[in-house]
Amino acid sequence: MQSLRRRARLAAAAAGAVLIGASGFLFASSAQAQADIVHIGAVQGSIEDGDTDFTSPLAGQTVYVQGVVTQETLDPSGNKGFFLQERADATDGDANSSDGIFVFNNQYSTLRTLAGSPAREELGANWTVNVGDEIVLRGVVGTYFGNIQFSGGSAYVYDVVETGLDPLAEVESVEIDPPDDAKASLEYMRRHLGMQMTVPAESVVTAGRDVFSSGGEVWAMRGDAEAAQQDGYAARAYRDAHPLDTVEGNFDDGNGYLFVIGDLGVRATAGTTESIIAPAKTYDVITEAATGGVYLSFAKYAVEVAEDLVLEDGLEPADNEPVEAAGKHEASIASYNIENLYDTRDNPNSGCDFAGNTGCTDPEDPEGNVSPPFDYVPATYAEYEAQLQRQAAQIVEDLKSPAILMTQEGEAQDVCSVNPAWTKHSDLGEDRLVCDLVNTGDANTGGDGAPDSIQELALVIAEYGGPTYQAVGDLDAADTRGIMTGFLFQPKLVGLSNVKKWDPVFGDSPEIDYPTEADAINADVQNPKALNAALPQEVVDQCTSSGVFACNGYDVFSRAAQAAKFYFKDKHGRNIGEIYLINNHFSSSPNTRVLHRTEQANYVAAISATILDHQRRAKVLAGGDFNVFPRPDDPFAEGQVIAGDWTGPSDQLAGMYEDSGLCSLYDVQVEDHPAAAYSYTYVGQTQTLDQMFASPALLREVEWTGSAHINADYPADAWDFGEEPAYGRYGVSDHDPSVVVFDIK
């Protein structure tokens, strides 16, 4: 009866009032239908099993809804909002429709009242947003990237029915319990969009905190989920192809039991945009229940909790099969994505690496075009140096100072050289390097053949107490944005081999068997050497700007593969054997650029095959960030439509498995230590993007191979929120480095 009296108040008011219609004209009290309240569930729509259209059935219409303000939100840019939900005894009774909705209110803490309404009469022109108020709201049903919502620009308060309510005592708060199946889980979350939802105590973090423009997020699962019951380090979410996934077989469930916890509510509770959700790492346990509204952003449904998470330390990810140091007569090689290691020097040879630059465009690589503002240059040198120091500590402490590192995402810049005054004890800081920041091209006298950011990383490694490294890299490996692959090596242990013009890879006429014209850079006689070629015409004819047919320009690589040949030294510095390295950073996004990435794998396979054709017992290691999963994993299930009559699996690395002459070291890892066989986390589950492939001669000498779990499971840096890294050196990159240890006797 109480609910009926509240709704009757609106009807009585409408009978004796003249209201302003949505289009601005007057309508008389006889136009009662325009003031009729609809259920929020009618706005959200009833989601049936198997539905794929989640749009509101009332999209674009002006409606009246009634509900309790359950929670306010605040995003990092200062935009505000609130969740509105019907009382538990006043819903439409449909379990498939949500009883809550989000109201976006831009930078405002108030919402306008409707002219001629009870709210206007009682409160004046504005109502102050207040948790616990029950209001009648008139608004236009809108959407923002799938999130059904009202906007303060077209929403008005008609009436304030009651104040001072305890929202969680009045509305239904559901304890989150999504089904395992990914599609069913999506339907489940959509049925609760805008409603209050509770994350129960004993839930387990499955991916360390990530930081996005909209704030921070933590992925988790219920503590009673089957995956959480697995032993030790296996108690986490693996992609379905992984042998430790909880349901046997590939592409079986999609790990729908995972959920996201966001911090729009945490920030509102704290009253500051500088707040962010507590740093969490994989395996941490949430010890106290947390409640918040369900919000859709970046294609993810998140519970935007009002209070920060209370966490208990779980297992230490870094202790999951840690890297073994190379022993006597052994060497180790690592591959490490150093995640946008840009320095704070304005490269005069680039128009797209610094604030104030005009940007870069390339008609041959349109997807690599770069326009201001620039997101990769650190805000200060101190921030950049902190990144160097943390990575240096990882290389020494966690990677055990490998003989050679293949790096990805270093800045493609060489306008500096080592300051002659530098020593590992000199404490020169920003003056470690001396640079020519004025002249361009051949007139620039600063370069020394070592890309600046990884050269500076080498110096910081020595300052940290690690060994002396030398940086090398071919700037032709760079993309338009200005990142490239590179190499760090210890001159005490290895040297760069001399190469001749007739060398089948490093010479002036490489013999790489690929069906298109080689780029001009392939004629350079040098070591290391970037290699590239035109995409096959049949691929170019299908290239699009996005999706599975997307292309990063019309070469095989937007970031050219880079080959290098090193020789190992005995204690007297004599050559005791060579190794060929192929350093890679394939195009990103496993489920897009599928044809392009497939050709990248084919070209790398052709490089390695060329080496092995001329030297059958050569030791060859191809590694890097392949940006797609190893077999049997795949972004497309068997029979899943990729495009037209093209169905999964896409098998984008087929060339590496079938034509390269190399063997996947992931297969060794998943057999020897499956719980540690991954290099990345995404949407709460592990996956492998960083891989190594070894020739038979090298494979026979492998003593250990794996990933150092020092980044992907830890919180991302949050400098924008004024926060120091929560776990010291861990979490400085979004990728875990790969390492292989082998005999060099």
From TrEMBL:
First and last residue of the signal peptide: 1-28
UniProt xrefs under InterPro entries: Endo/exonu/phosph_ase_sf (IPR036691), TAT_signal (IPR006311)
Keyword annotations of the record: Signal
Entry protein name: Endonuclease/exonuclease/phosphatase domain-containing protein
Species this chain originates from: Glycomyces mayteni
